[in-house]
Amino acid sequence: MTGAAGSIGRVVTAGLARSGHLVTGLDLVRRPDEGPSLEWLRVDCTDADAVAAAFDGRAFDGRTFDAVVHLAGHPGEAGLLDSLSSHVVTTAALLDAMVEHRVSRFVYASSNHAVGRTPRRDRVGVDTRPRPDTFYGVAKVAAEAVMSLYADRYGIDAVACRIGSFRARPDTMRQLSTWLSHGDCVRMVEAALTAPAPGFAVLYGISANTRAWWDLEPGRALGYEPLDDAEAFAASIGPDPKDDADAAHVGGMFATAEFERPALDRARAAGDGQ
Predict the structure, then answer these.
(1) What does the pLDDT average to over 169-176?
(2) What is the mean pLDDT of the segment spanning 185-199?
(3) How is the beta sheet containing 200-205 ordered, strand by strand?
(4) CB 171: neighbour CB atoms within 10 A?
(5) What's the chain look like in SS3?
């Protein structure tokens, strides 16, 4: 599991360990003090050689990896090049190592921001065309495309989980529609790991929210049955001046002018050229 020290990684690692999975954590930082004891490797997933070495050197009682859960990546908006490196290069490095070592299951933390510029009207399905709201969203779309290629070219089963708002509890009006609870996040990853022969598949990573903006049926077809509903917290969430902007597009505030920026940092590019 890449990004095992992150907010999602810590929750999912603990949940999978409770279910009997043997997890190896990969991250740029040392293993957190809290959480289950597990095998840990400090690896930069943009370094294809380091990723390959992690696959070469790790085994448990003669057993090698049989799946990769890819949660690593910068969680916010950055320039285009940094976003592509963080999300697409890492995905490609892991998939190359999987092909070399005959690992056949890939589960990816994609994002709702892959379709974030979709106007908020009808419920959004997995057949909605990609409409990223940021370079972060662009990189998630591109990473999904690499996964699709490797599913077609090498027969890898690759599931892209377009995660909504991962929180212990929702705290905005938008999150009443987009919330993914900790428990449902674990259930989602486990379903993506164990679904029979999904090929390349996309699901929306949200809980069973009464006000859901995304279609949960593709996830249910893979065995993901969310149990929580953000509606249980609705009475505790009051109105906010940003609610209308947050609900205009499914990506929320990521689809507003606040996040608009040039794709390339020309000053940095000029410095690199010197």
Answers:
(1) 98
(2) 98
(3) 68-70, 105-111, 157-163, 200-205
(4) 16
(5) CECCCCHHHHHHHHHHHHCCCCCEEEECCCCCCCCCCCEEEECCCCCHHHHHHHHHHCCECCECCCCEEECCCCCCCCCHHHHHHHHHHHHHHHHHHHHHHCCCEEEEEEEHHHHCCCECCCCECCCCCCCCCCHHHHHHHHHHHHHHHHHHHHCCEEEEEEECEECCCCCCCCHHHHEECHHHHHHHHHHHHHCCCCCEEEEEECCCCCCCCECCHHHHHCCCCCCCCHHHHHHHCCCCCCHHHHCCECCHHHHCHHHCCCCCCHHHHHHHHC
pLDDT over 70 at 268, yes or no: no
Give the integer Cα–Cα distance in Å for 24 and 26: 7
Domains and CATH numbers, the chain: 7-273 (3.40.50.720)
**Burial of 129 (C-beta count, 10 Å sphere; 0-12/13-18/19+):** exposed
Instruction: State pLDDT tens for residues 199-252.
Output: 999 999 999 999 999 999 999 999 999 999 999 999 999 999 999 999 999 999
Cα–Cα distance for residue pair 9/69, rounded to 1 Å: 9
Residue 88 reports pLDDT greater than 80 = yes
> For residues 153 and 225, is the Cβ–Cβ distance under 8 A?
no
CA distances to 41, 58, 96, 117 from 62, rounded to whole Å, are: 18, 9, 22, 47
Q: What is the pLDDT of residue 255?
A: 97
Rounded CA separation 76/11 (Å): 19
- According to DSSP, the residues that pair with 39 across neighbouring strands are 24
Q: ∠140-217-205 over CA atoms, to 5°?
A: 35
Check residue 60 and give its pLDDT.
56
Does the pLDDT value for residue 257 go beyond 80?
Answer: yes
